[in-house]
Amino acid sequence: MAILILAAPITWAAIKSPDRYSANAVMNKGVYNQNYNSTARADEFTLRGDGSKPSRAAPKPVPMPDTPLPAPDKFNDPEAVAKASSAPPKEAQSYGSFTLEDLKQQIEQNSKGEFVLQVPEIYYTGGDLEVQRVITGQPIETTAQVLPEKVNNADGHRLRIFRMLVQCCAADARPYSVPVDFGKKAPDFKEMTWVKISGIMSYEKDGDQTIPVIKATSIEETTAPDNTMIY
């Protein structure tokens, strides 16, 4: 009887409780109160390629050697083996500076030439002046959830997009968000809808912060990704 008394409310809660954050929960977690100068976890989402994380750019085709490799029976000849060996690796590149070519080597571009970024990657560009200089004016694409913009939006031209980033477990996930400006009245989307956005990267100053702002060129509703939270 005691087990049944306990099992009933637990089962009901498991069935009826939402398995995702509500709009109010995301707002309470600070979706409109962002610190773009933060360096916490910035090394995981920096657009710089320092060798510590794999590039997300599309791999380049490996060119075939100009001269044919020797036949297998010639590999007993040390001289032939030496000639057939692969070329030495390129020297390591310095990332003391950051260029558009560095960005292209690190980040995938879609068929329209837009850099495919995650919201936390866009978020952390707010604290990196060199990356800002390179990516300002560049076309980007990202997928996120949408909320009305409640900051610096008197003309109603903006929406807020965000992704939840897990710190330790889903319960302590926090929203990383950036504003999206449409240059005219922002389209209406139901709160928490998943959208795919294309736009041009820009930045604006707000006090001691530099805020990444996407100047939208298109937005459309999309399906949620397999992993709705970023780990």
Automatic annotation (TrEMBL):
Residues 43-94 are annotated as: Disordered. Residues 60-71 have a biased composition (Pro residues). This is DUF1980 domain-containing protein. Signal peptide: none annotated. It comes from Prosthecobacter algae. Residues 140-231 form the DUF1980 domain. Residues 43-53 have a biased composition (Basic and acidic residues).
